[in-house]
């Protein structure tokens, strides 16, 4: 069972690496809470607390646990609600987004 915790002090690069190690897929992290047209990718060196759109401080937010039984859609929604940062899950080579109904444990085979 893959699982890890995320907090506002973690860098974007570390989050993406841990996500890939745990689930075998790519995590796209955006600046703020917009993943739509014209959205910008977050700088890998930035801490999540600096990437958040509206939160003044992520120190009070606490950790967020990512588990492999979450669906991609539930993970993306929960992450955005917790950190005010948009994320999307893509396949291993980052060429296409994965369906939101797929569980993270199944993502690398989707």
Output the keywords.
110 residues, alpha+beta, two-stranded antiparallel ribbon, two-stranded antiparallel sheet, 3 helices
Q: Helical residue percent?
A: 25-40%
Weakly predicted, low-confidence segments:
none
The H/E string reads EHEHEHE
* Largest sheet composition: 2 strands, antiparallel
Q: Give the C-alpha Rg.
A: 13 Å
The CA-CA distance between the termini, in Å, is 18 Å
Shape: globular
Write down the domain tally. Answer: 1
Given helix and strand content, the structural type is alpha+beta
Mean pLDDT: 86
**Strand residue percentage:** 5-15%
Q: Please list the strands of the largest sheet in the order they lie side by side.
A: 1-3
* Number of discrete helical segments: 3
| DSSP E strands, number | 4
Structural account:
- The protein has one domain.
- It has 3 helices and 4 strands; from the N terminus they run E-H-E-H-E-H-E.
- The radius of gyration is 13 Å and the shape is globular.
- The relative contact order is 0.26.
Topology:
Layout: E1 3-6, H1 12-23, E2 26-29, H2 48-51, E3 64-67, H3 72-83, E4 87-90
Antiparallel strand pairs: 1-3, 2-4
Concise summary:
By secondary structure, the chain is an alpha+beta fold.
């Amino acid at each position: 069972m893959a699982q890890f915790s995320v907090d506002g002090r973690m860098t974007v690069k570390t989050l993406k690496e841990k996500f890939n190690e745990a689930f075998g897929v790519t995590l796209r992290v955006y600046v703020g809470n917009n993943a739509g047209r014209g959205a910008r990718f977050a700088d890998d060196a930035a801490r999540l607390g600096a990437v958040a759109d509206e939160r003044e401080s992520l120190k009070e937010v606490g950790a967020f646990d990512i588990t492999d039984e979450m669906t991609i859609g539930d993970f993306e929604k929960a992450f955005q609600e917790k950190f005010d940062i948009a994320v999307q899950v893509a396949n291993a080579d980052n060429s296409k987004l994965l369906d939101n109904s797929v569980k993270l444990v199944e993502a690398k085979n989707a």
